[in-house]
């Protein structure tokens, strides 16, 4: 990556990770570029795949989904067809924010957003307990988020 981008590109990426709706004029002013030069560089970063997409980060608390649950899942087998079936089905669960294939004790780690314990029980019964190939499942409720960012250190 370092060969592809210079210090100005890194500054652009840091600024956009912090505030993705900056205009080219505002962004250029932050990194000492003209708006047109800034626009060209951002387009190049997008084409290179360094900027994947732009999103709005919604506030789960204000939207009635204040609780995060981390679910560790161990599958009954490691065969490709078991992994593929699990991944296809888990991707259809709207409450699952993230699903990671893991190395270590569990095969997958899910990050699930819920209203409360009753809501998680509903999601567990309706979706999680029906996922294919699941041998074990352990759930942990987050009591408080101490640190959270979507920004990758650049």
From TrEMBL:
Database matches in InterPro entries: ArsR-like_HTH, AsnC-type_HTH_dom, Dimeric_a/b-barrel, Tscrpt_reg_AsnC-like, Tscrpt_reg_AsnC/Lrp_C, Tscrpt_reg_HTH_AsnC-type_CS, WH-like_DNA-bd_sf, WH_DNA-bd_sf
SUPFAM superfamilies: Dimeric alpha+beta barrel (SSF54909), Winged helix' DNA-binding domain (SSF46785)
UniProt GO cellular component terms: cytosol
Molecular function as annotated in GO: sequence-specific DNA binding
GO biological process: regulation of DNA-templated transcription; response to amino acid
Name assigned to this protein: AsnC family transcriptional regulator
Organism: Brevirhabdus pacifica
